[in-house]
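[Automated response] Your request has been received and processed.

Submitted sequence:
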Amino acid sequence: MRILLVNPPNCGRSIPEERYGIDSLKQIFRGEPLALQTLAGNLPDHDVRIVDLKAAPDTLDEALTTFTPDLVGFTAMTCEVNTVLALARRVRNTCSASIVVGGCHASCEPEDFNRAEIDWIVIGLGTVALRELAEALENGKTPGVDGVANTSPAHKLHWRPRSYAAADAGSDTIPRYDLVEEYRSEYYLSSLGLQMGLVSSALGCPYACNFCCIPPITGKRYLTRSIPAVIADIETLENTPVIRLVDANSFGNPKHALQLAEALASAGVKREYLADVRSDTVVRHPELLQRWKDVGLRAVVIGFEAIDTLTLEVMNKNNSADRNRAAIEILHRLGITIVGDFIINPDYTEAQFDQLGAFAHEQGIELPMYSILTPLSGTELHRQLRPQIRIHDLDYYTLTNAVLPTRLDEELFYQRYAALLCEGHRTAKV
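Generated structure:
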């Protein structure tokens, strides 16, 4: 079977740009479509191509004409839903391929894809599910794959959830990095001039932050990939000096994380790493961070989210402001750079903007990153705040738009938000 996997183009709309001419809230990292590469790696018996419309926006029609796929697969974040539906209609009008969609939004709110332009929806991890779907379609069978729903626009979706195992995490699958080699030069962190390769060592997260869309993807499980497979992925990216571990929580299993660090040392793998960790992991396991520093850990991304414990409790973060400060101290002592994520509530006052900016500066966070609190579909936050949501067009769910009412005058809110972002990027030291 010929399978075309499509990474949608850069999309999403910007209120601050459209209404107030504030055009500084731009995407700063264009990463390779690792999820699609992993899917492709688990389809060895099929002819698979990847079209990355973020790197080459006008190449879909040519691929449909020259490759003539039997199955076209899309991935989509929330802000990409409308664009993917439009692309699916284009595929429908161009060829006879079956159309499947997966990714974060499909896993959290699959009914949004229960449309005539879509045939199948993968709900949760698709590494094994897509292969099983392709095999069934190729054999002319009516698929009954766990974690895959057949669309029925006039009715509610029905499907059997998957019981996730290590295989679903692609434990032994090397992603098809070769399928995007032509785009390799496009994958970089522009604000810092870093070219990165993406590797996954774990999927899911054992925590339940109310704003997070990760848990539904793995049925709320935390799955680690086999250590030999992770090392094989890193070694495959032989010309990439910086490896971004894209896990939602790279050290969510400290024992596995330590074993991976030891294996990298034993194998003599020489790379620099950027990984996502929680501050409480840093505080409880400083020796783990030291070992990773020894094998090349350059920076960590930490979701601090807020600077006070009460707000963290409201987010169900299961963490505290004191623990965040302790983690910052440990990481600075170890010489590990901090990329700190913070969430700005649309209810912010000017004083709160001042306090957040002062905290990031005083704590010496090398690259503070700020997003706007966004109730993504399928999250507990969305269920809590649904009556307050004033913007329902998913194009604006980029985490840089206030879809909830702002306390400040809206233009002033975005001016303060843009100023925080610009200051953080100006002083970045990663």
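Summary generated for your ticket: The chain has 15 helices and 16 strands. The CA atoms of residues 127 and 145 lie 12 Å apart.
If you did not submit this request, please reply to this message.
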